[in-house]
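HOLO CASE FILE
Compound: flavin-adenine dinucleotide
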Amino acid sequence: MGEYDAIIVGAGVLGLSTAFHISYVCPKAKILVIEQNPRVGQGNSAKSASMFRTFFSTEVGQTLARSSIDFYEHVHEKIVDLKMKWTGYLWLFCEEDFKDFRSTLNEMERKGLEYMIYDKDELEKKLDIKTRISDEEEAKFMGLSDVDLGVFAPKAGAMDVDALVKFYESRFTQRKGKIRFNLKVKNIIIEPCEPLGTTRFSGEPFFWQEARVAGVNTTQGVIKAKKTIIAAGAWAPSLLDQVGVTAHLKPRKRQIFSVTTESRRLRELYWTRGFNQEGCVPLTFLPRISRTSTRISFSPHDGNAFWLFFSDKFPRAFKHEENPQPENYNYTYGLYPILTKYFPQFNECKASLSWAGECVYTPDLQPIALEQNDLIFVGGTSGNGIMKADSLGRIVAALFAGDEHATLYGDKKFRVSDLSIEKRNVEPERVKI
Ligand SMILES: Cc1cc2nc3c(=O)[nH]c(=O)nc-3n(C[C@H](O)[C@H](O)[C@H](O)COP(=O)(O)OP(=O)(O)OC[C@H]3O[C@@H](n4cnc5c(N)ncnc54)[C@H](O)[C@@H]3O)c2cc1C
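Model generated. Tokens follow.
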């Protein structure tokens, strides 16, 4: 089999984008992607809501997302149908919360981000939403606020992640890249840069010896590489921890509940006109729940369903589970009663399908791409991995090639070390979901 130039652990959207871009930047490189599942994109990429936006408060968030989305649009128009739909995102606010957000929004506007503000009356007319609820007993009990206005971001929408990962897979394999499925990496292999002799001393590398990552130990034996790239999503922390690489990653469970548009009223809500060319309701975030800062959202999907989502914080554990399960009680006692307060259209609706995955968060909610001792790590996408995957793949390809800057789609230069830990140069993201 011989040594590879690069092994990439993980055939999710990040691993495949990385593989694709390395095969372009270094056409002669021998690259192997290793995936424990039988197919590509079956980890958290498959569990995502597949939404995208450029609406970030930080320069880095905007750049990574905009460039990736522009690339996906190019692929969608010229190469493969990625089912991109520009439905937009709508954030609903009460007056008080909007005051806090105003300065961030002004800064974003100065950076050229497009948005529109809808007042309460327009929202009522368009969405048939109940905006005055805070005096109701149940709303008071749950800490729900009124809706005073909405901020609509048009450069946002939904796409088909499966089509995206398959696009990267096919382009990578056409360039002679290899993927091995049903193969699990058990641990990372460390070797001394200068071994003491032909027979390895027990305990080598000693703490005074310079060491490097030499490949991986899998369920079917050792595979060696010049560079080992970990793109293992929520599984990455356990691999990195084994060799003492710090990336400050925290996996957290996230859940989606799907409600089909069986009633006339729900279909009417789905096909709300006036926001986008699709003639449908945007991904809509309800006002922040004051006590917990959680926002509930719903997005239209496939013409016949809404996907309901909530991103809870304290006391939701930061932990990795092999097979996280959705918590139906959070639909019954959380999503349903809150959503129906604002949107009675959801009355009597049950979730026909639900699933759970994990998002991997960093303290500043910006992704990480770092290199250390021939190990490269990419991840910590903080719930935005699909919409930033193309840029991140290009950044890792630049790291692999030893370039200081990556050229993102649209020719924008990006300093690779900005996403590292040691020379990190990013602001914390303020538009959180
Ligand atoms: C409910 C939910 C909704 C989301 N919604 C959105 C959204 O709307 N938009 C957005 O941009 N992002 C969203 N995300 C986040 C997005 O899914 C992730 O950021 C993205 O999928 C990360 O891609 P990845 O390639 O790093 O991870 P993954 O897709 O999880 O890929 C990692 C791969 O590595 C493999 N692997 C791990 N360990 C090993 C090992 N030891 N050996 C071999 N293979 C291994 C796994 O099997 C997996 O296939 C959402 C996430 C969740 C959970």
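CASE NOTES: The longest helix spans residues 59-78. The longest strand covers residues 250-260.
CLOSED: yes
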